[in-house]
Specification:
Layout: H1 3-22, H2 26-29, H3 39-62, H4 75-101, H5 110-143, H6 150-164, H7 175-199, H8 203-214, H9 229-251
Helix pairs in contact: 1-3, 1-5, 3-5, 4-7, 4-8, 4-9, 5-6, 5-8, 6-7, 7-8, 7-9
């Protein structure tokens, strides 16, 4: 195990996580207004580009042998084998959102739907999978390499951190909402981590992460920004089931 490389990757992970949560540095100098798109969203998307470019440089210098899985090998096979559960979770989430948010009180522009409802979420998926699964999960896996079930340990640790990492974005919400969201996100993280380890291809969780996030598109059609009780309960059930499915997958031998 290359300790220097682990140290560099850990620092990179922490920096990316901080930039993702804070929106820095882009939020300090980018304030772009486009139709009814929330300006902050555009700033965050610009930050994704900065983060991606910075990570690429570091990985080129210090991580030439660090397997992220950003290639096509195994991608289609992985999607065929493991995508159905994620697609169903996303579709049911969308249905739950529609039920909870109806009747809708806002008519968004095409720009808002395209940027805030689709492109932004693919940016979120790419960046979060890059540093949560591609970096952090692999760091934990390498540190725990002497343990018999080191991959499972890495999936669980990264999933719990993934869930807790969303807490700063929920400041001000009711404690029960935060707890339910964290549980849902951990279930989602178990799924992304498991299919990543099963396929060794980071595009598989990126694509499914992006799809699931885009299923929150109904929020573009309302001025309401929280979570209705029925939506919250539905999401917890959906992602707990996805988590259980992922645990079952972990116990299956890789084929």
């Amino acid at each position: 195990m290359n300790k220097k490389q682990i140290t560099v990757m850990t620092i990179l992970t922490l920096i990316l996580a901080f930039m993702d949560i804070s929106g820095l540095p882009a939020v300090l100098f980018i304030n772009c207004h486009l139709s009814d798109v929330t300006p902050y969203i555009i700033s965050l998307m610009a930050n994704f580009l900065i983060m991606g470019f910075g990570a690429w440089i570091v990985l080129r210098i210090f991580g030439k042998d660090w397997h992220l899985g950003l290639n096509t090998s195994g991608m289609l096979t992985g999607l065929k084998k493991y995508a159905l559960a994620g697609v169903l979770a996303g579709v049911f989430s969308c249905v739950v959102f529609v039920i909870g948010l109806a009747p809708f009180d806002y008519k968004p522009s095409v720009w808002k739907i395209l940027i805030e409802g689709i492109l932004y979420y693919f940016g979120v998926a790419f960046i979060e999978e890059l540093y949560v699964r591609g970096l952090f999960l692999n760091i934990v896996d390498r540190l725990a390499h002497k343990k018999e079930h080191h991959a499972v340990i890495a999936i669980w640790v990264s999933s719990i951190v993934f869930g807790l990492g969303h807490v700063p974005g929920m400041v001000g919400m009711e404690p029960l909402v935060i707890i339910f969201k964290v549980i849902s996100t951990i279930g989602m993280g178990l799924y992304f981590g498991t299919i990543y380890k099963k396929t060794n291809n980071l595009w598989v969780p990126i694509i499914l992460h992006g799809f699931i996030d885009i299923c929150a598109l109904p929020y573009c059609f309302t001025t309401f920004s929280g979570y209705k009780t029925i939506s919250l309960i539905g999401l917890v059930i959906i992602y707990m089931l996805l988590g259980i499915y992922s645990i079952a997958l972990m116990k299956m031998k890789k084929s």
